[in-house]
Amino acid sequence: MSGGPAGAADVPVGYAQLWRADPGAWSTAGTAWRNLAGPVRQRADALTARIGALRPGWSGAASAAAQRRIGELRTGLTDVLPALVEVDQVLAELGARLGAAKARLGAEVARAESGGLRVDRTGAVRPDPARVAQPGPAVVHARAGIRGALTLAGAADREAAGRLTELTTAAVRGWVSVPPAWRPGPGAGPAEVSRWWAGLSAAERRWLVGREPDRIGRLDGLPAAARDQANRLLLGDRREQLLVRRLALRHPLPAGPLEASRRVRLAAVEASLRGLDGLTERLAAGGAPRAYLLGLDPAGDGRAVVALGNPDRASSVLTYVPGMTSDLADAPAELGRAARVLQRCAALGPGEEAAAVLWLDYDAPDFLTEAAGTRQAEDAGPALHRFQEGLRAAHEGPPARQTVLGHSYGSLVVGAAARDHGLGADALVFVGSPGVGVDHAADLRMPAGQVWSSTAPDDVIRLARPPDELARRALLAGTPLGPALAVLDGHGERLWFGADPSAPGFGGRRFPSAPHGHTGYWDPDNPALDGMARIVLGR
To answer: Edge-to-edge strands of the sheet including 303-308?
Structure first.
């Protein structure tokens, strides 16, 4: 990929194409392919209805043959569904990578021009003698930067073309069934799952996604693309489960405790439905970053794991663990917080590929009485550990920088997982923390200097003192020692779940937050948002 006018022989000819490229058009094309899934499902459902209509009034060999043939046609249609999602994934990722390459190109050109160089429409770099005393090194650096951006775009283009060609070939040849014995055992870890998946053919993998989506959608260690395809196939079933629960709870009972309980449960189911619909809307949205559905369970309060951007391809990956009362109903709003960190990452590092994951795969406390204990955080530890190991196992290319962020009770979840099981992470971040279950950063088994924390000066979490301290304050309230004790407590280093991770004695690193309360760390004007993004990028 070289050519161009004299003096620019080392500039790839793709400069003009990338400068004019519209990355969003590829994402839009992917969305159009994915939207074909609706008509395909409707046609498959119509064939199912046709089979049902044949059975009552027609029997015998001809009837059996007709039903079998219609069933084969229906299977052929449903086998197309994962492929439609896969085309969307490929085109969305191409758009995202071209967008990153174009952002990097723009940054390189702006840097060159601000340094007194000129970049023409072909990408040729020339010095402005009036502005640059020694242009040689500057020109070399600018040309290398531009070439790097074009290399990224070229690699993205070639990879997308290869994946689409492979998918087309596989679709023509058909999928290949996988014998029941060829499955990971119940105790298989993410690394073993990843090796199993790598040993399958592309046709076998696509067969498993289409025929066993419930299994594939929840296996840590599998690629995000496969899990996303499987979980999207289950979206309709998950919503139907909530609709059935809502219908069962719509019948009033005689006034009393049972009726009150029914009302509470009905409200919770309706909130879960709204949350699921909000997630579905985000999953259906075009544009970057594309959302990947890595897990969804409507049982109980509901759970969800959603990535913005493909974590298997990104060089920086954030896993965000929310806190108390978080459930399926809150998932869209919590995903918005992860999105704001990702947006700030894009502003700070143009051209860098980053992804953010909302990990809401634990039973978060609903009430203060539950949040006062560690059980739910400790119960979540093995799942968070396994998920992070899965991100490591499924990642392509050089290892990504993995950051795990916990907010409020979520910080205890992260701390307990790191303490008890270890986390596949390069950095831990705590915001608005009531304590993380350890007394020193070294107890979290992380590299030195990679434990971070921020607590807003007006965050009420600062009042979450240990039970014995609260009792002492209550006992001395109204006495001459009360005011002095309050002053001393304001400078204390212990919170409800151990040492304050934002205190100097904890041994971690602090980043600032403006007075935005307990939930304002993601506000656009809060320096904490910049702090989180810089940690994710490793800056």
So the answer is: 291-297, 303-308, 354-360, 316-321, 401-407, 427-431, 451-454, 509-510
Sequence-distant (≥ 6) Cβ neighbours of residue 162 within 8 angstroms: none
Instruction: Answer yes or no: are the C-beta atoms of 234 and 296 closer than 8 Å.
Output: yes
Please report the beta strands in 343-493, taking only residues with DSSP state E, as ranges in sequence order: 354-360, 401-407, 427-431, 451-454
**Residue 286 confidence (pLDDT):** 76
End-to-end alpha-carbon separation of the chain, Å? 33
Beta strands per DSSP E along 215-302:
291-297
- How far apart CA 224 and CA 312 sit, in angstroms, is 7
Identity of residue 403: T
Three-class secondary structure of residue 22 per DSSP:
coil
% of the chain at pLDDT higher than 90? 58
Q: What is the pLDDT of residues 30-53, one digit of tens each?
A: 889 888 888 888 887 787 787 777
| pLDDT value, residue 59 | 78
Q: What would the mean pLDDT of 262-289 be, rounded to a whole number? A: 92
Q: Is the pLDDT of residue 331 over 70?
A: yes
User: What's the Rg (C-alpha) of the chain?
Assistant: 27
Dihedral sign (CA 449, 454, 455, 461): negative
Q: Is the pLDDT score of 477 beyond 70?
A: no
Q: Nearest to residue 192, comparing CAs of 487, 394, 397, 52?
A: 394
Residue type, 217: G
Can you read off the two tokens belonging to residue 312? 């298997």
